[in-house]
Amino acid sequence: MSSPKLMHIPGVTAGFALLFFTLCSAQVIGAPGQTDNTLPGGIGGTGAHLGTHPGGGIGGTGIVAIGPIQRFGSIFVLGKEYHFTPQTIFTLDGLPSREQDQHLGDWVTVQGHWNKNRWVADRVDVTHAITGKIESIDHKNHRIHVLGQVIALASDIQIRSEPHPAALHFSALKVGDEVQLSAAQGDVGHWLATGIVRLASSAQPPKVHLQGEIQAISPDRRQLQIQGIWLASQSLIPEPIEPRQPVEVIGSYRDGRAVITQVNPVTPGNFAPGQAIALFGYVHQTPQGVYCDRFKIESGSKISGERQDISAETSGQWRVVSGLIHSPQLIHLDQTTPSTKPMQFGLQWGSGRLENPPIPESVPSSAPTQEVSRPHFSREPMVPSIPSVPSVPSVPSIPSVPSVPSVPSVPSVPSVPSVPTSPNVPSSPPMPFRP
Fold first, then answer.
1. Could you tell me the sign of the dihedral formed by the alpha carbons of 330, 333, 339, 343, in that order?
2. Euclidean distance between CA atoms 225 and 215, whole angstroms
3. What are the phi and psi torsion angles at 21 (to 5°)?
4. Which sign, positive or negative, has the C-alpha torsion 330, 333, 335, 338?
5. pLDDT for residue 403
6. Mean pLDDT of the chain
7. What would you report as the CA-atom Rg of the chain, rounded to the nearest whole angstrom?
8. Considering 52, 67, 74, 230, which has the largest number of Cβ atoms within 10 A of its Cβ?
9. What is the pLDDT of residues 339-387, one digit of tens each?
10. What pLDDT shows up at residue 279?
11. CB 283 within 8 A of CB 315
12. How far apart (Å, rounded) are the C-alpha atoms in residues 57 and 300?
């Protein structure tokens, strides 16, 4: 089908060209009032310049990004877009998955590399930290309690329901709802959630799922303490499981109590030394050192700018940490950036597309839910859509020519008065007869 022909109208063509350039340009204007805006260069807007090109690492071995899904198109994590290919691997809580199973706010670990001037995702792993019933709700402070955990809601948190995708307002959640949380761990028993799924009611007992480090095990090995709470086990806890070991516990509710049926060790990610890494997490001090999201953080060699030493001043804060992976659970620090907004960190205004727009806080609790259609996104990078051609302004109508005033009629010429007829000349008398 032939392309429509555009009429060249001074000003309109130039305006369209400017609009198209603005939409397609990588340089876009920052969001007004946004505090976690993109910093110059680096990983996820942290300002770190690892290596001689964006591939980072030693010899460009790749990058690891840990944080929430901020936008789609293909996927944005900590301000960087990672493109999917037919070779990208997807998992959901350790099981094979599809790219369509991802949602905004999901907590992901992305492993990727730099290729042809773009980031390419090799693997995307989605994990949910907590599954359980809401025990209480703090509407004033935007917090909920699940399995004894205190869960603060991040700004721009994504809340939806199943089985039919529908965006929910915080006020739609109720005590007793079964929810699944995407969250980052803070102090023991405290979390910052970026995504909540209200699960559909089922005939099966509600599920229980919790990640963390084992703090203690009872002498009879029938109970364990994790994230500050004691949970009963249906059977003996296996001998290889010991305190200080990171695990996930799985179970269900029985007579209103959470009972665990499985205790699975959590193995560290298979990250190669020399990979660049950026992660959002809670930096905290322990007797063994400074940690963030189960990674030990040490001051590494100077990579870019002034080296930042990890110290007690950074402990107890939410931060984006960037550096190089030295071993599977050790990061050599390059830079840290304070942030309490993981859903906004490093994003530029207009980057990607928002699946479920945040629902304003002013929405009343009785407000209906909003049906959301899941967008389809291909494995190839998306080409920005060409904006619609602005309508050609109508040509102003030509003003009507004023009518020519009628020519005044020529006054009639007065009739010439008739010439009076000459009086009759009397006839001459007859001549006398002459003989």
1. negative
2. 5
3. -65, -40
4. positive
5. 56
6. 75
7. 40
8. 67
9. 999 999 999 755 554 444 443 333 333 344 444 433 333 344 444 444 5
10. 96
11. yes
12. 13
- Residues pairing with 295 in the sheet: 292
Q: How, if at all, do strands 89-92 and 119-127 pair?
A: parallel
Q: Which tens digits make up the pLDDT trace of 196-222?
A: 999 998 878 899 999 999 999 999 999
Question: Tokens in use for 197?
Answer: 């799924």
- Kindly report the three-state secondary structure assignment for every residue of the chain: CCCCCCCCCCCHHHHHHHHHHHHHCCCCCCCCCCCCCCCCCCCCCCCCCCCCCCCCCCCCCCEEEEEEEEEECCEEECCEEEECCCCCEEEECCEECCHHHCCCCCEEEEEEEECCCCEEEEEEEEECCEEEEEEEEECCCCEEEECCEEEEEEEEEEEEECCCCEECCHHHCCCCCEEEEEEEECCCCEEEEEEEEECCCCCCCCEEEEEEEEEEECCCCCEEEECCEEEEECCCCCCCCCCCCEEEEEEEEECCEEEEEEEEECCCCCCCCCCEEEEEEEEEEECCEEEECCEEEEECCCCCCCCCCCCHHHCCEEEEEEEEEEECCEEEEEEEEECCCCCCCCCCCCCCECCCCCCCCCCCCCCCCEECCCCCCCCCCCCCCCCCCCCCCCCCCCCCCCCCCCCCCCCCCCCCCCCCCCCCCCCCCCCCCCC
Q: How much of the chain, in percent, has pLDDT values that exceed 90?
A: 53
Rounded Cα distance between 266 and 248, Å, is 7
C-alpha span between 237 and 218 (Å, rounded): 10
Q: So what's the pLDDT on residue 269?
A: 79
Distance CA 160, CA 355 (A): 11
Q: For residue 12, what are the CA distances in angstroms to 20, 95, 389, 391?
A: 12, 53, 10, 9
Which pLDDT belongs to residue 166?
A: 86
Of 91, 100, 95, whose CA–CA distance to 125 is shortest? 91
Report how far residue 324's alpha carbon sits from residue 278's, in angstroms, rounded to the nearest whole number: 9
Predicted TM-score (pTM) of this structure: 0.69
- The total of other beta-carbon atoms located within 10 Å of residue 293's CB is 18
